[in-house]
Amino acid sequence: MTFSVDVTVRGYELDTQGHLNQAVYLQYAEHARWELLRAAGLPQDKLLASGVGPVALETTVKFLRELRGGDRVRVTCRFVYTEGKTFTVAQQVLKEDGTVAAEVTGVVGMLDLAARKLISDPAGHLTSLAENPDLLTG
What we know:
Blueprint: E1 3-8, H1 22-39, H2 44-49, E2 52-63, E3 72-81, E4 86-95, E5 100-112, E6 117-118, H3 122-129
């Protein structure tokens, strides 16, 4: 399932050309990931109390269209699981007309906070804790 949150580009997030600063795309993506977990019933405190926390291992951003102050965007988020200790987070930043402004793809793992190692079944762990596990399956 693809989850989304809406964001309005704020003036202080712009670079010297009047475009959304490239680093802010990552903040929007992170905001959408945490909102997805919260909507699934896994707010940050509950997730960390389970002894694990998400860790970004790789992030790629493809910038496709400019965003300017006042633009309203929708940031999507979908978890795509494979076998192993990592999974992919697929995200898009969409303009109001549906045009893709950016694609953000990340490789993520769930870190055992005591052992400081990735857990072997991140999908199973997340869905077992979630109140709305359907939101976590892509």
